[in-house]
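Re: the request from the purification team.
They wanted to know what the chain is likely to look like in 3D before they choose a buffer screen. I agreed to run a prediction and write the result into the notebook, where they can find it.
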Amino acid sequence: MSRRIGVYPGTFDPVTDGHMDIIRRATSICDHLIVGCARNAGKGPLFSLDERVSTVKEEIEALGPELAKRIEVVPFETLLIEFARSVGASFVIRGLRAVSDFEYEFQMVGMNSRLNPEIQTVFLMASENVHFISSRFVKEIGALGGDVAKFVSPRVALRLKRRFVEVGRRAANAD
């Protein structure tokens, strides 16, 4: 019997409790989960690709050794479907928070299935306690000095706080 390999892609800028909920739950439907951390420069990430990969790895280690040994974090900058094929994945896992996510995701499934019909997409609905969390809102709250502790782990909250201090210093020095 072949291993079921799934890919859970994202920018993870930063990784949130919502992402971690999907990661934990995705391990129940695959033997090996590859968290694909996308370069995605178009989104203007707050953290570099290396920082995001490192942060996601740290969060996965915190899940405990039993789960962590089944999860791998891999950076990528190709088409998602090409990345999934290159790592031997048979399906892509996507999290859905709201109906508004569905239209975009539905279009992506259509495009990806045309590019490679052998790789399926599996949707996991966000759990009720994290469905409202988005990296974009977490960054906005953190940038304005708000408390993000309810949306990310303490490790990620500290990284965000440090980054916003750096950004503030750079802005002050630019004036």
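For the purification team: DSSP finds seven helices and five strands in the chain.
Please add any questions underneath this entry.
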